[in-house]
Structures are given as C-alpha cells and as structure tokens.
Automatic annotation (TrEMBL):
Its main location: cytoplasm. Catalyzes the conversion of 3-deoxy-D-arabino-heptulosonate 7-phosphate (DAHP) to dehydroquinate (DHQ). NAD(+) binds at residues 113-117, 137-138, 150, 159. SUPFAM superfamilies: Dehydroquinate synthase-like (SSF56796). Zn(2+) binds at residues 192, 255, 271. GO terms for molecular function: 3-dehydroquinate synthase activity; metal ion binding; nucleotide binding. This is 3-dehydroquinate synthase. It is found in: Cytoplasm. Keywords: Amino-acid biosynthesis, Aromatic amino acid biosynthesis, Cobalt, Cytoplasm, Lyase, Metal-binding, NAD, Nucleotide-binding, Zinc. Signal peptide: none annotated. It comes from Allostreptomyces psammosilenae. Binds 1 divalent metal cation per subunit. Can use either Co(2+) or Zn(2+). The lineage of its organism: Bacteria, Bacillati, Actinomycetota, Actinomycetes, Kitasatosporales.
Amino acid sequence: MTANPESSTIRVPVGGSAGHPPYEVLVGSGLLGELPGLIGERVKRVAVIHPEALRPTGDAVREDLAAAGYEAIAIEVPNAEQAKDSAVAAYCWSVLGQSGFTRDDVVVGVGGGATTDLAGFVAATWLRGVRWIAVPTTVLGMVDAAVGGKTGINTAEGKNLVGAFHPPAGVLADLGALEALPRHDYVSGLAEVIKAGFIADPRILELVEEDPEAACTPAGPHTRELLERAIRVKADVVSEDLKEAGRREMLNYGHTLGHAIEKNERYTWRHGAAVSVGMVFAAELARVAGRLDDATADRHRSVLASVGLPLGYRGDAWPRLLETMRVDKKSRGDLLRFVVLDGLARPAILEGPDPAMLVAAYSEVAKA
Ligand SMILES: NC(=O)c1ccc[n+]([C@@H]2O[C@H](COP(=O)([O-])OP(=O)(O)OC[C@H]3O[C@@H](n4cnc5c(N)ncnc54)[C@H](O)[C@@H]3O)[C@@H](O)[C@H]2O)c1
Ligand SMILES: O=C(O)C(=O)C[C@@H](O)[C@H](O)[C@H](O)COP(=O)(O)O
Ligand SMILES: [Zn+2]
C-alpha cells in the first residue's frame, strides 16, 4: 500500500445492494466542507445529531450548514452508550416531527459509534427511512461503526437488539477529530482495528506489533494505513453481504462474549475493551476445539495487551454471561454460534459448542 501525504484524502468505496446505493468513506483532514455536496441541493432541513461532549463541533457543523442555506437543526444526545436508548430515539423523533422533517431532508450523525448507531437508527425509522450521513469522530466510528449500515439501540435485555440495516449516503472521517479523543477511547477503537487484522488483514497486526505505542496515537507513522486497512476490510465485507446473510458474521469476531460483558457492566466498559476480552475468549475456544494453532491464539493476548486492552474478566460472571449470549443475534433456536478462527485470517463459525469447551475457554479468560 502506498504511503499517502498527510494532506491527501483516502476514498474507500462501499458497494450498494437492492435499494441501497453505493457510497464512499472519505478519510482525511478538513472534510466537513464535503458535507453540502453529499447532502444535495433539494434538501431543506438537516438534523445534526451529536453527543453532549461534542457541542462545539455540533454547533460548528450547524453554522456551516446554515451558511450553505440549509435549515440546520441541532439534536444533542447523551454521551456514549446512554444515547442508544429508546427514550433518546423518541426524543429525536419528536424534534424531527416538530421541525416538519420530510423524506427529502437529511440526518447527520456526528460522534462516536454510539451516536452514529443512534443517528442511523433515527434516520432508518423516521418516515420509514430518510437519508443520513455519518461523521465519525472516534477511531472505532471511523473504522467500523459508521461503515456498513448496521444501526440500532440497546434494550434492557441486551446490546443492539433493536435496529435496522440502513447504510449512510456517505462517511466523512476527519482525522482532526482524533486529536481531542481521550487515549482510553482511542485504544478502544484499536480493538476493532486488531479484529480486522485477525479476521482478514494480518499486515494490521504487524504494524501494531512494530510500534504499539505509536499505534495508540493519531500522530503515529502508520495511523492512516491502519485506519485505511481496517476500513477496507469492513467495506469489502459489507459490500458483499449487507444484511449479514453469511460472510458479514465474521465482523462479529469477539462480540458474542464482548456484548455480554458490556451488558453485565451496564455499558460502563467501552465496546472495544469488551470486544478485546471477547476475542481472547474466541481464540481460546478455537484452541480448545482443536481449530486454532497455539501461536495465533497466543498472539491475541500479546497484540491486545501491547496497546493496553484488557484480556480477562471475572470468573464468577460466567453464568450471567452465558445467559446473555443466548440472545446474541447469531444464535439460532437454542444453538449458540461463535465466530472463531481456523487460522490467521480464516474466520469460520463454531456452532453449538460442547458446554465443557465453553467453560474451558472461559477459565482461561478468568485467569488473565
Ligand atoms: N454499527 C456498527 O457496525 C458498529 C460497529 C462497531 C461498534 N458499534 C457501536 O459503537 C459504539 C462504540 O463507539 P465508540 O467507541 O466510538 O464510543 P462512543 O460513541 O461511546 O464514544 C466514546 C466517548 O467519546 C466521546 N467522543 C466522541 N468523539 C470524540 C472526540 N473526537 N473527542 C472527544 N470525545 C469524543 C463520546 O461523546 C463518548 O463519550 C458501541 O455502541 C458499539 O456497539 C457499532
Ligand atoms: O458490522 C458488523 O456486522 C459488525 O458485527 C461490526 C461490529 O464491530 C459491531 O459492533 C456491530 O454493531 C455488532 O453488531 P451486532 O449485530 O452484533 O449487534
Ligand atoms: Zn464492534
């Protein structure tokens, strides 16, 4: 892959499918100027959904849109996972209703993955679907959440249990936003970058291993390449399988246990941290099942630990975690299904594992 000068914009195409036009993920600097071009001319109103923490950014976007002639409506929502709630979605719907938001109008989600998941869900459900644009401001949002059209909210029973496949009309990943991102959140996003490395693009793992500290900052020499590679993995998969009929399940690597941990922690853990533990579990499960070699299984711990991601979780939580995993979207009937690796970049499904195998794999996680 060729190195890009800092000023250049990377454009990653994402293919469309029935009823869903193709779009692009733009990665670069000063990208907000692209927003009016994506929104289009017939549009009258633009609703900008942003979290409390990004009020200045939300205001700036709204002012730019007003200057470009749109009626810009700000919808401020709670930070992080608290936004992925039916009451917050209902609040957004009420603002859209009161502003006379029509099918010609556009939603813009500015924030991390929690905000873009909510904004996309509001766009998917308002008038049965209006266009939306994602402006991700976290690593995780840029490489994963804003791409691919999975939108949704949580319920008391679990993570992302209500949602819709509703791809954005475009994604603007402005790298400048990452300067203000706390390290804890930056590193959480690296879990999804590393996930892309294990399931599809091992060069990602080499780049992180070469200099883990540099991988944890936006100024690192490989930052653009890491983000671009992870985005290309995601774009490639969702272009082929938008509605998760098959191949897309690989993007759920580490998420079966990860989502259960998030729920158990009442969403106070960052998604990436929980997915990190979930990947260690999936690697142990594949090892116990005789499907994954020791070196690749051990590499999970070393690369995740090198950037400060967690590897373990409480042993006493296992019965609750198992119960939550039963409502994972990959389950079929009473069958639990896990994404595992048969080798590096060889994702596969392990269906209905022997309960003893699950316990053995979790005991390795509980030890860490
Ligand atoms: N739809 C998908 O395909 C998909 C993929 C991966 C993850 N997700 C979802 O994404 C969510 C996690 O996203 P996340 O890790 O981006 O966390 P987040 O959206 O919860 O953001 C983390 C925190 O950072 C703040 N923040 C955001 N951008 C900032 C910036 N530039 N500077 C300072 N603070 C900033 C937010 O307000 C929040 O408090 C989870 O809900 C997860 O389920 C969805
Ligand atoms: O895009 C996908 O497909 C993924 O599974 C990506 C995940 O990183 C993401 O966290 C997603 O929201 C999980 O989806 P879910 O269907 O398990 O809720
Ligand atoms: Zn995820």
